[in-house]
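@channel sequence for tomorrow's demo:
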Amino acid sequence: MTPLNWVNGLVMCLSVVGLVRTQEKCSISAPEFSRLDTTITAGEQVDSGTTFRVFCDTGFQLGSSSVAEVPCVTGQMPSSCRKVEVITYNTEYALGSEIVMTCKITALDTVSGVRWIKDGTDFREQGEFAAGQTSPFQSVLTFTAAAADAGTYNCEATLGSAAPFTTETALIDVSLTILAAEMTPAEETVYLQIGETLPLACTFKNLATYMLTITWLRDPSESGSCTPAGEVEPASETGKCKVVSMYNTDVDDTVVSRPNLQASSDPAVSNTYSCKGVYNNIANNKEVVTSAARNVVVRGFTIQPTSLSLGVGDDAAFTCETVGESEPTVVWLLDSAPQASSLFSSDYTPATRATKSVLSLQSVTKQSSAVVCRMTYPGESGEINSQPATLSVYS
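C-alpha cells (generated this afternoon):
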C-alpha cells in the first residue's frame, strides 16, 4: 500500500469512529424585516459561524444600527431586526381630554417590558406583556391631559433575544401641545357696579396651525357679543367671533377675547360666564376647549334719592332702589346717623333682584340735612351707598 493510500484509509477509519469532524455548513438567509447585502446570495452554503452583513428594513434596527454583521448558525435563524414606534392620533390635546398613545413593537424577540419616558424622566412602567402575545406587541398609555403634560414622550422597549443580542432599547419622540382657554380674573366671583364693563378675558394659545372660533357663553345661553383682540371678523349677533388668517402664519399664536358687555340692572347680566374655543386645523381635526366659569354679580342703584326743599312741619319722603344678587340690609342715614327702621319700609322682588326702600319723615324741622340710602349685600364689597340727597327746610 502506498503512503498516500495509507493516509486516506486512516482518515476514513477515523471519520467512521468520530475522531475527525468535517466543518459544518450553514445556509445564509436574511433575518426577519431585513434584506441581504447585494454581494451575498440567499441559500449560499458557508461555514457555520461565518458573519455576513444585512440591512434592516426602513424604521427597523438590529442592535443599535440599521446595518449589522450577523453570524450564520446551523439550524438557527439569525436574530431579527426590530422596530419600536409610538402611535398617537393627535399631537395637540385640550385640557381635560383623554390622551391615548400606543407603543408598538414589531420584533420576533420576546418583549420583557415597556417603559414610558417624558422629557427624559420615567413617566410610567407598563410591565411585562401577557404570555402568548405575538408580534406586533402593543402597550397603550391613557391619561387625562393637564397643563403639566405638555412635553416629549418616549417609549422604551426591552427586548430579550438569543446571543449575541441580549437586550436593547428604542426611543421615539412625540410632542404634545396643550390647547387651553385661560379665564381672567382669577377670582371665581366678580362684583361690579352698574355701568362698569365686565373685566372678563379669555386667552387662547398655540394657534400657529389652527383657525379658532370663539363663543362667549352665558348660562344657559350665549352672551350678546364679543370683541377679541387681533385680526378678527366683526362680531355676529350670536356672539361668535372668528379669528382669521391663522394657518401657518408668523403672527403671535395667542388671542385674547373679551365680552363687550356692561353691568346693568338687567338681571341676566348677573350670571355665570365662560368662553368656548373650537380649534380647527387644515386637516379639519377639531378640538373644543372651554374655560373655567366666572360668576358675575352686579350691584348698584337704579333709583337715587332726590333732594327736597320743604317748609317747617312738612312731611318728607325719599326713595331709593337697587339691584343685587339677593335681598340686602337697608339703612337710611341722616347726617351720617342711622335712622330707626320704623321710619322706612323696604321691598325685595326676587324676579328682578330689585330692592326698593322709602324713608318717611314727618313734620321736618331741621334746616338742612344730608340723606343717604345704604344697602349691604353679603359677600365681598357688599356695602353700597347712594348719592347723598339734601333735605332743605325753610321757615
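heads up for whoever presents: Residues 3-21, 162-167, 223-251 have pLDDT under 50 and may be disordered.
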